[in-house]
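Input record (one chain):
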Amino acid sequence: MNSIVKGPKIHDLRDIPFGTIQEFLFHGWLGYSMLSVYFGINIQYMGTIWLFGLAALTLLMIKWNQINKIYLVLVFTVSALHISIQAIVYGFMPLQSVYIQPFTLWLPVAIIIYPLVSRPGFVLRHTLVMFFIAILLSPSIVNLAGRIRLTALSGIDNANDFAAWMSFIVLVIWLQSWKKINRKKQIILLFIAFISIYFILQTVSRGAIIALIISAFVGIRSIPRNRWPKFLFIILFSPVTFLLLPIFQQSILLYENRLYEDTGRLNILESSIQAIEKNPVMGYGIDRIGGNKNITSPLGNVIPLSSPHDAISLLWLSSGVFPVIPFILMWILAFIKGYKYRPPFDSPYLDGLPLVTFSFLITLISNANFMAQWAILSVGFCYLIPNIYNLSPDKFIYKSNRNF
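The corresponding structure, as predicted from the sequence alone:
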């Protein structure tokens, strides 16, 4: 009689790889933090305790001597400099500030995501979770002046933030579509991409869709030669499809009207540069940024400045040049590492270069999206994956649960 070989029995949680537990808990935290207010299940400090507790557990369970820690060091350096300068130099330290709170969460989220990106298929699974969250939030969508936005207090209620969220989903599916994948899964992913593109067009967000297009073209470098006919077919017929489908025609008209609309971004950029030139070393303090406030330079010039809509300008204006240096270095190293690593066709990992390209482009047109979990994933992916893509992460990076 032939015996059936079965996998190891799971008697308790210690038999489950910690990476699996960590991924489940992280996605649980993400869902709770974005959905709890909308569904009326929010418990004060629960999300913060969940996040920092999981980060602490991750610190204990990772073989940190085996992986590149430069990314986490740079994240810590930028956050520490920014928060310290606000507290010490400007005496401004309300943790609930929209320009302070994200920096307190950036490092713990990075600590959790950094090892997770080493798990084969994590990026796609995370993308599916993002899409599921967006669908659950979709009943809160409202249309204001021809643009949709959320009203769920989810963190992505702004039209541009929601567009960036959905654009990341489309980009990952685009990169995944050139991998070996069965027909059923491919159809499901194409359906998800179709719905996501519909939402993006409804936001009428120019920056997100431009970043998506540029990043998708960067991803062309990973398309195998035998897939080029499929690629050319998509490039030629996708625009025709969108033009002919009635559900997209209204959005296309809105984009045409918005294409040359002056939103004041160039004026804000000009004011930001002027303010930085007046005080490039220490900035002006975070409480002076946003709300259409005026900045009085050391020379007495009054410079009108609203929210910069640019992460580099935000850091420079609020805390000066010191956090900007490691911040820019973080992106330069990510691009270098992402460019050097081009995964083979049969690799379970995606190309990191288009992911970090997308995140950087969004960083240039938003204040804090570089601290969103999908941006942390993109940058961390480029730092970590080149070193471990051909190894087993559950053995190489994670300690055994039986050690505890």
